[in-house]
Specification:
By secondary structure, the chain is mainly alpha-helical. It is built from 6 helices and no strands. The chain has one domain: Orthogonal Bundle (Arp2/3 complex 21 kDa subunit ARPC3).
Length: about 160
């Protein structure tokens, strides 16, 4: 049965994908971009069950793939990341963290996500240069961690 909280999550996720594709794709630093969809999926892992998180991660990853013509790379890497980290994120969500702790958690999750993404992209030869891989793994992860930490600072505890 469709619940209103699932519809709300779906609409917010669609907005995050749209912001990622329209805005963050054009805000590149050293040819890397922050991944807003990843931050939303990490937040969702702290609030939802593993099955719901996996389904939403697959859906939002597929939408992000469709908009960036990387069919399956985001979907696989985000779904696999949720499969790996959901239990840990759900367990630590009861704690109150300060800025640098959130930064390190999001940085570690982003590095794992980008390693999975780059590893899968090697099979499809989407990125032929190792320079792009280093930018993706480190600079993109750093930008994602900075954005996630900032969003943690301005969030509401509602």
């Amino acid at each position: 049965m469709i619940r209103s909280e699932n519809i709300r999550t779906l609409l917010i996720g669609l907005g995050m994908v749209a912001i990622q594709v329209i805005l963050f794709r054009n805000l590149r630093i050293f040819d890397s971009e922050a991944d807003l969809v990843l931050i939303f999926i990490l937040w969702m892992c702290t609030k939802r069950t593993k099955t719901e998180s996996l389904l939403f991660a697959a859906l939002f990853g597929l939408l992000q793939d469709a908009m960036s013509d990387l069919w399956g790379l985001h979907m696989f890497s985000k779904t696999f990341l949720v499969f790996i980290l959901h239990t840990y994120l759900n367990r630590i969500s009861e704690n109150r963290f300060i800025f640098w702790q959130i930064f390190l958690i999001v940085l570690a999750a982003a590095i794992i996500h980008n390693l999975i993404f780059f590893g899968v992209s090697l099979f499809s030869e989407a990125y032929a240069s190792t320079h792009i891989g280093w930018n993706l793994i480190f600079i993109s992860s750093l930008l994602t961690a900075i954005l996630g930490s900032f969003l943690h600072l301005v969030r509401s505890d509602a």
